[in-house]
Write a structure and sequence with these properties.
It is a single chain. By secondary structure, the chain is α/β, with parallel strands linked by helices. The chain is 36% helix and 15% strand. The chain contains 16 helices and 19 strands. The strands form four sheets. The chain has a seven-stranded parallel sheet. The radius of gyration is 25 Å and the shape is elongated.
Length: 512
């Protein structure tokens, strides 16, 4: 692997870190958007530290982070050991790349090894640093300089990290990095917001069991598969789900529609996980469904589509998830990233490139101040859906995806449940993406399914009305010629059939 070339902003961040350390700061938090090269910055800092004879520890909380950091250090020719299950110990190396769990288990809990000496301690994804395991390790290095790395310097409940870090060093924003071609722009499509009323919030986010019961439905998953086929087929895609059962359900529905989809979670065997991720990188797998595994630190620039099927109250978690697909991929023609928000997250937290003013204060919660004033008495336009193509746009402004212009006195527009719309730069959402010719094709494909499955006459028209809210624009005595259905239409019909069967079963149970 060749040594990465430092971008000017990365060199500037390194210089600011050196100046802060020279000024006496001992606990620094580097804030850099996902995909901006935090590990590259750390590797260059570590290379300079070892040249001065200093000893360094780099800590991460996932195996992927440990392996990626090791690769970056190899690229800058820094000799290092790895403290991680499955790797031989090299305690004499001046640099140790450590799994926080392995280091704590071996050096703190069991005492089977000595804590490696360190003048400099890096903490990757340092928004976790307030957890007890991290605090124990940090306390064991009172003389070391602590440098945290994160895209989201806040805890899960939004509070700052002032108890651990004392100064922020910030990289350019997502907007600036996108303008300079270091990240790709995002096109956001969003459905109407899911009904999350009554779901309890604990530790800053929805209670998982209640959220899964509300979100893991055949209808919603059918919409996920259908819209992917229509808008993202051929794009390598990451799907974030609520829990394991939800992830497996989404994967199975993709497979039934002919898509190469896989699922991973925290219990997936290591070799199977590596195979799945390698197949994804090589193009053998189209969709990876996961829950809380690929949220942080996972670096696969080939990914160009994100499915958000997991509502969250956490701004930090939202920004971590959307950041997975914003990386530039120099070896492909990746011009943008598609984000399918089936969770209403963009209406809760704003657009992926909204600028966030981060604070360390431990009693203040991170807030997207740009988004918080949208739709408030004209201070900023709200995010809405385009009535022509369902993209998210700014209220009162033209749609940047399809060119639709608002009328002076707009009437209320009904949006089909679950229909995605692209979130435009003005933060409004464009409505149903189906054009008239697409609706006619959908009807012809329903007619084919009706004939193929021996359904009653009129079934296709009723199914069309359930989808679009109106009857097909053809006389019932002169229906058009049926057309072989694609995977998206079959997925939609199957999801409705399953939902109907479940409703009938529930009705029978209640009657008995």
């Amino acid at each position: 692997m060749s040594a990465p070339t430092l971008h000017p902003y990365q060199a500037e961040v390194i210089e600011r870190l050196k100046q802060a350390i020279a000024a006496g700061h001992r606990r620094l938090c580097v804030v850099a958007p996902t995909g901006s090269g935090k590990t590259v910055i750390a590797a260059e800092m570590i290379r300079g530290a070892t040249a001065r004879g200093q000893r360094v520890i780099f800590m991460g909380h996932r195996r992927e982070l440990t392996e990626q950091t090791s690769q970056k250090l190899d690229a800058v020719e820094v000799d290092h050991g790895i403290v991680q299950a499955g790797f031989p110990a090299r305690p004499s190396a001046k640099v140790q790349v450590c799994s926080i769990q392995t280091l704590h288990a071996r050096a703190i809990r069991s005492g089977s090894i000595h804590l490696p000496p360190a003048d400099l301690l890096f903490i990757d994804e340092c928004h976790h640093a307030r957890a007890r395991m991290y605090e124990t390790i940090i306390a064991a290095y009172p003389g070391a300089i602590i440098i945290g790395l994160t895209a989201t310097p806040c805890r899960a409940d939004g509070r700052g990290l002032g108890n651990t870090f004392h100064a922020l060093i910030e990289c350019p924003s997502v907007t600036k990095l996108t303008e300079d071609k270091y990240l790709v722009p995002a096109r956001v499509y969003a459905p109407t917001q899911p009904d999350l009323r009554g779901i309890k919030v604990k530790l800053g986010d929805f209670v998982e069991s209640q959220l899964a019961a509300r979100i893991n439905t055949v209808h919603l998953i059918g919409d996920i598969v259908e819209h992917w086929h229509r808008l993202a087929k051929g794009r390598r895609t990451i799907a974030f789900t609520v829990n394991v059962a939800h992830s497996v359900h989404v994967r199975d529905e993709f497979r039934r529609s002919g898509v190469l989809a896989e699922h991973i979670d925290g219990t997936t065997p290591l070799e199977e996980r590596r195979r799945i991720l390698a197949d994804f990188a090589g193009g053998k797998v189209d969709v990876i469904c996961n829950c809380s595994v690929l949220t942080e630190g996972w670096d696969r620039p080939e990914a160009s589509c994100l499915i958000l099927a997991r509502p969250t109250k956490s701004l930090g978690l939202f920004r971590q998830m959307v950041g997975r697909v914003l990386r530039v991929h120099p070896e492909s023609c990746k011009a943008d990233a598609l984000i399918f928000d089936h969770a209403g997250a963009v209406f809760e937290h704003g657009l992926p490139d909204d600028e966030i003013v981060w604070e360390l204060h431990e009693d203040r919660r991170a807030q997207n101040s740009t988004h918080s004033v949208r739709g408030m008495g004209g201070r900023a336009p709200a995010l809405v859906t385009c009535p022509e193509c369902s993209a998210v746009r700014f209220e009162g402004r033209p749609c940047t995806a399809c060119g639709w212009h608002p009328v002076r006195k707009p009437r209320p527009i009904d949006v089909a449940e679950g229909e995605l719309g692209e979130v435009g730069r003005d933060h409004s959402v464009r409505a149903n993406i189906y054009q008239p010719d697409e609706k006619r094709r959908f009807h012809r494909q329903l007619l084919w399914i009706a004939r193929e499955w021996g359904r009653r006459s009129g079934w296709a028209a009723h199914a069309y009305k359930a989808k679009f809210g109106s009857w097909p624009d053809v006389p019932p005595w002169a229906p058009p010629e049926p057309e072989p259905p694609d995977a998206a239409v079959r997925a939609w019909v199957r999801s409705r059939d399953i939902a109907f069967a479940k409703a009938m079963a529930a009705k029978r149970r209640s009657a008995s």
